[in-house]
TrEMBL record:
It comes from Prunus avium (Cherry). Residues 1-23 are annotated as: Disordered. Keywords: Membrane, Mitochondrion, Mitochondrion outer membrane, Protein transport, Receptor, Translocation, Transmembrane, Transmembrane helix, Transport. The chain crosses the membrane at residues 59-78. It is a single-pass membrane protein. This is Mitochondrial import receptor subunit TOM9-2. GO terms for cellular component: mitochondrial outer membrane. GO terms for biological process: intracellular protein transport. Residues 13-23 have a biased composition (Basic and acidic residues). It is found in: Mitochondrion outer membrane. CDD domains: TOM22 (cd22884). Pfam families: Tom22. Coiled coil: none annotated.
Length: 103
């Protein structure tokens, strides 16, 4: 009597045979040559994009720091020169003398 099956218990699904002939349509499609090559192409594209983004970031960093080190001080110096020229011109106009020749 102890060997009788209990009623109302949980029954597990039957195990399927893992043969290729028993696979579903989705499993067959996901293993097709077109899908495999498509996945490989997507992986290759992602790899190239990642490398390109990394090298682009490095190039942007180099360009940005070079701009800050070389160009920004030049712009500041040119602005100071322009302000000095304008100040000399204003002083010459106030004093009534002729403006000094531009440099």
């Amino acid at each position: 009597m102890a060997a009788q099956a209990r009623k109302g218990g949980i029954s597990l699904p039957e195990r399927r045979n893992p043969k290729k002939e028993d696979e579903g349509v989705i499993a067959k499609l996901s293993q097709s040559q077109v899908v495999v090559r498509g996945k490989q192409a997507a992986n290759d594209a992602a790899f190239v994009t990642k490398k390109l983004m990394k090298s682009t970031g490095k190039a942007a960093w180099i360009a940005g720091t070079t701009f800050l080190i070389l160009v920004v001080p030049l712009i500041i110096a040119m602005d100071r020169e322009q302000q000095l020229n304008e100040l000399e011109l204003q002083q010459a106009n106030i004093l009534g003398t002729s403006a000094p020749p531009p440099k």
